[in-house]
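Re: export button greyed out
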Amino acid sequence: MTREEIEQVVTDELGHIAPEVDIDLVDRDGDIREEFDIDSMDFLTLVTGLHERLGIDIPEADYAKLDSLDSAVSYLEMHLVA
Amino acid sequence: MTLPTIEAQSARSDDRPNLDDYDGTCRAFRWSDARGLLDGLPDGGLNIAYEAVDRHVAHGNGDRLALRWIDNDETAHDLSYADLATATNRFANVLAALGLKSGDRVFSLLGRTPELYIAALGALKGGHVFSPLFSAFGPEPIKARMTIGGAKLLVTTKSLYRRKVAPIRAQLDSLEHVLLIDGTDDLPDGTVSLSDALASASGDFDVVATDPEDMALLHFTSGTTGRPKGAIHVHAAVTAHHVTGKYALDLQPGDVYWCTADPGWVTGTSYGIISPLTNGVTMIVDQAEFDAERWYRILQDQRVTVWYTAPTAIRMLMKVGADLPKTFDLSALRFMASVGEPLNPEAVVWGDQTFGRPFHDNWWQTETGGIMIANYPSMPVKPGSMGKPLPGIEAAVVEHANGAVKELTEPGAMGELALKTGWPSMMRGYLDEEERYRKCFSGDWYLTGDLATRDADGYYWFVGRADDVIKAAGHLIGPFEVESALMEHPAVAEAGVIGVPDPTAGEMVKAYVALKPGFTADDALNRELRGHARKRLGPAVAPKMIEFRENLPKTRSGKIMRRLLKARELGLPEGDISTLESDEK
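Workaround output, generated via the alternate export path:
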């Protein structure tokens, strides 16, 4: 899977949770919870959705590594390759 | 399933809790004695902020650490009681310079930052009324609360202002001043830099000698119908904040205390600002959102002794597992408590197995201002029970009969949980809603709207809500507020909102929607409606799920039967449906 494809999956899932957010206006390095206005429950929904779409287990201890759109994509890219 | 009773924590250790003898303390307790634990002001005045901050400075404890703020990057910033006294004096002077008068309403829309604490206490010092708003609210809940509360001044951040307040500013008639805590230049129109204002303000201020019955705090809560209710609390409440913190949280000198609740809700104010400070302990305030590893690191590194958290957080920690906490030194922890919704028995036991001590659940409401029923370190814990009433509090299970209430004394009998009026932190009214306030009482009983039982040992057990309000992640959400926002969308003909069980959050907000002719119930519209609701309500209040229906079940008068939607969602008996006129399709 290319980085672009992974990013598409992440933005799809975020779009499902926060459909009102215009992805083009988002700061990709900004705090993902703030940029997409998501709470802790939404974040868990995101992680579950990514697990289902990509088959990657994201342990709770790694949640902090998904703190922005870019870092989430990088994290998934690294774990898909491994 | 009933899990075995857990032996009283104090029977297993050498710790001597503040409330060592529950029955004896209850017998001897007088609210006037509890008031004597505080200083008061000359001529009978009483001011929450004086008792929380300045009193300790006056007693020579100004160098004690009051607040350790841990920012997002995990850097600690410290404020002693003396620092906090000066900072709150400056803030009070800023408000005075802006022309605010006693009783004027000061609102905050902030994450957990020191400015929030300074604003709350500074406003109280100046005799103003403080009302905190949760920063995850969207523009609609913010507008409703600031309008009802008659907000005169708002303290917030640039980003929150731009996203949530600027779009509704023109509709906030009472609002005169907006103070922004971040940045000094490039500020939006109609806002002022707080740091600039503070820099030119004096650090000396004479605390306004408020009367104990003067309004101090305005906390918003949700009912089944109608707009949010502003529960009025007065300065006298500080006696209850103080003594309940002593008994139910076992706050003692030298404690390092961490309340994880956001001050945007009542717990985060009563027990996240006032009670710990009146008790002279050190508060830990974490800016970041929940993160299991970070939380354990804070408990370890800050040597937290008393931890007050919530069921949703505990259940998230349980999901992470018991291995992670084992890698941290949590030996400083002495007392753990939980509030927000009933803590499931498994979580109480998990705490005992994982930390060597159980979570002590307690119960109270926005209206009660402070903890009313609790589990204490000196009392065996029955997992799943909310415990027994605080000293000074008389509780009962009652049923309604002929316009009055009757106490049910039979153990295990289910009825509405009621409290005998007269404790100092009881709300004094819902702002401008006398009728709704009056409905909360029958004779000298305050009716909580919660259903409960009491067992033969005097322990109380939560059963459910008597009305349709939703409790998601410990926060009360009124279905009407959510339905109203959905109805604003041109496609929506009818909306019914209920709480559905969720293993982590307790309940999750779910909406049923019937569309107007000409609209198609498809995924695109579902997303659009959820987005529409999130934009208006924010993530904390907006429905997480929307389901389309052709028609919603209604009574003859056209009222949507949420109870029936919920029974069907959960596969429960439908109960009395004699008032059903138009059924669901």
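The radius of gyration of chain B is 24 Å. The button fix ships in the next patch.
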